[in-house]
Amino acid sequence: MKGQSQSEFTENLNKILALHVAKKIEKFHILFDPTDMFQLETKEWIQIATSRGVKELNLDFRRELSYNFDNKLHSPEKIVTLPNFLFDCKSLTHLSLSHCDLGLPENFSGLRHLQTLCLRNIHILPSQLQNLLSQCQLLESLVLGECDHLYYIKILASCFRLKYLSLFNCLNANEIEISAPNIRRFLLCRTVMDIFTFDNISSLEEALIGVSQNRYSKTKDIHMAVLASASHVKVLTIYGGSLLCHLLEEFPVTFHKLLELQLVNRPGRFDIFSADVYLFFKHCSCPLLESLSIELPHPPPECVHHSRLESARPKVESVDCDFNHLKTIKISNFKGTDTEINLIIFFLEKAIFLESLVVVGSQSYHSTDKENPMNKSLEDIRERLFQLPKASLNIQIVFCEYSEHDDISLTCLEKHDIANQTHQLPSYFEFD
């Protein structure tokens, strides 16, 4: 729709589809706000795609795309309700829906070959979700995000092939029940609940857990239940987890099979400080850990209280743990404070077989101006790191400047379906 009104966009797309004579449409993706005026045309487009055996269908009807000439949002219009014939489409293998009413018919015959399903900001009830999943016997990947009407999420996957599950921003889901013997990767982020049941997950290998601060005092046992459920994973990401690190004092966990650990701050927030890393390893045992990534806080420039917040963290006097298998460490957003350098000293003294330590400077240091005093400080920090005592004889230390490729937040999320299957807007749209 860039540079076009809704009418112009609709007219142009109608012309394109009229000229398209192929019998098969493999993929059909549309990002459009039809409001009330163009809902009929929208359903006709879906009909064209489904009638030609579409395999991959991505429909995004977010309201934010409707701007009038005064650059103000239109008044709210009726939400798009999906046509019944969509659910009788037997060719679909990948379905992604955003900002619409599912309108699921009670009896439908399609979606038998569906392998991936992503529902974001969808009006769907718990009974509709169960009805939908019961028909998708080949489903391998499921993403549920921002579905406010899902007060109860029940996923009993013993009858189908679910391997990847992402639940994020389902803020009204008070109860979650999951039984999935084939699940390998699980993401639970910013979803507050009162009851959490996660069993029959012997195949789980990778988990990302994002801690919500909402109602934290009432749900700390739930947070620990989630973490305990991931105690046998090989790859674990704790996202925004300073609260969780403090919980471990009360509920210690042993990760028997953990090979890779990532401690990540939420974008725009700073939740994990050096003290939180000590707390994690003081109360968590990771006997087989091989790879560790830590994202230190990166406060915005206007935040003048960062050092005060860091010093307010509880002091951890001693941490009795071993890193007998730890080979690689990556620490990003490194600013060279004494507490951060002490954290590196801690790992260099404990990791006797460490092979690689990668330290990524904070974005604040990223500059090509050689006269910049910040860069001179960066050189001093680099020199100090190389002079630190090391328990490992074969370690290589790499100090590099910040780049977007070193953003652990993005890296860990790209490994999960929350990044791969939720809708990405074109660069000319900038929304929160």
From TrEMBL:
SMART domains (UniProt xref): FBD (SM00579)
SUPFAM superfamilies referenced in this protein's UniProt entry, alphabetically: RNI-like (SSF52047)
InterPro entries: At1g61320/At1g61330-like, FBD, LRR_At1g61320_AtMIF1, LRR_dom_sf
FBD domain segment(s): 320-400
Source species, domain of life: Eukaryota
Name of the protein in its database record: FBD domain-containing protein
